[in-house]
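Here is one chain, start to finish.
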Amino acid sequence: MRTRRRLLTVTGLAAAALATAGLNTSAFAATTLSSGHVDVLDAEWDGVDLHLHVHDEETGTEYEPADVTLSVPAAAKVTNPGCGFLGSGSQVWLLPDTEAEADAAGVLFPGISTEHLTTGVFANNTVTYTLVSATRNGAATEDFSVYAGSCARWFDSNTATTSFKSRTFGVATHNHANWAFEEAGTYELKFKVSGTVNGALEESATETYTVVVSS
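Its structure:
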C-alpha cells in the first residue's frame, strides 16, 4: 500500500473538533480518525461469535468502535448531488467512494469490509450489515445515508421508511460507497452484522460509531 500523510490524533484535535460542534469533549474517545482508508464496518468471526471492528488500513490498526471518533471536517462539504433522500440543502458533508476524491479533500475513505471472513462458513457466503439506529446530537435523525454511484442507496437513517436499513455482502469482499451527512453535529450510528452458520443465525453485538461532523 502506498504511503501517504496520515491524520490520527488524540485529545487535542478531538477536543478542538468537538468544541467546534459545541459539545462536551469528555464523553468521546481519545483516538480520532480523520483521513485515509479506514474500514468503518469490519466484520470478524472467531469461530463462535461475529464481531465488528474499525480497521485502519493505513496503519494496520484495529479498534473497538467505542474507542474511536470519526471526524468529518468542513472540507468534506460538497454541492448536494441531488439525490432525493439527501434533502433540500444546497450542500452535504460527503466521505466519497473513491480514494482519489477522499485524498484530494483530506477526508476519510470509508470502507465496508468482509475480507476477514472466509468462504464456506456462512450460508450463501454472505453476511448482512444492519443500521439499527442513528441519532444526531442525541435525537433520531434523517440526516445520514450511504449510497453508491448515482444515488443507489445502501443505508438510510430516515425513520419514515423501513427500507435501506440492511444490506447483504459477499464474504471476503471489500466495499466502498459515499457516506453522506446532511447537517453538522455529533452522530451516533448503531450497526450490527449477522450471518447463518450451520443453520443458526449468528449476530454480533450492536456497536455504536461516533461521527463528529464539523461546520
